[in-house]
Amino acid sequence: MENKARTIASLVLVVVLCATGLITPGVVAHEEPPQSKSPPSSPIDLEKCWSSLFNVHGCVLELYKSVFSGKFGNVGIACCKAYSTIDANCWPHMFPLNPFFPHLLKDNCAHIVPNLPAH
């Protein structure tokens, strides 16, 4: 009986979390967009920002694993090199919910690939 109660409680929790994820974008859509940190004359092209990471097989997956786990051991040399080519203005738009991620990734990549260009 106890296992059944835990299963039901877990199922309810998952449903609530999923419902929250579906409701949240609708609420955000009615709010004013956040002010961009870049000048109005130079809009950020997210496709261009992501392109160097998508060109390295598995790099985007490595980064997402790092974002959600907080561990950077999955980020490889090729991904760190691709990271170093991304404009610093892109990062706040690529990972808006985790402003510390670019700095943590930069520090990790500095240990993996010495002499990476600074952002």
From TrEMBL:
Where the record annotates domain Prolamin-like, the positions are 48-109
**Gene Ontology cellular-component terms listed:** extracellular region; vesicle
Q: Which residues form the signal peptide?
A: 1-29
Report keywords, A-Z: Signal
Q: Which InterPro entries match?
A: Prolamin-like (IPR008502)
Q: Which GO biological-process labels does this protein carry? A: double fertilization forming a zygote and endosperm; regulation of double fertilization forming a zygote and endosperm; regulation of protein localization to cell surface
Name the source's superkingdom. Eukaryota
Q: Which PANTHER family match?
A: EGG CELL-SECRETED PROTEIN 1.4 (PTHR31181), EGG CELL-SECRETED-LIKE PROTEIN (DUF1278) (PTHR31181:SF75)
In Swiss-Prot or TrEMBL terms, this protein is called Prolamin-like domain
Specify the species: Arabidopsis suecica (Swedish thale-cress)
The organism's lineage is: Eukaryota, Viridiplantae, Streptophyta, Embryophyta, Tracheophyta
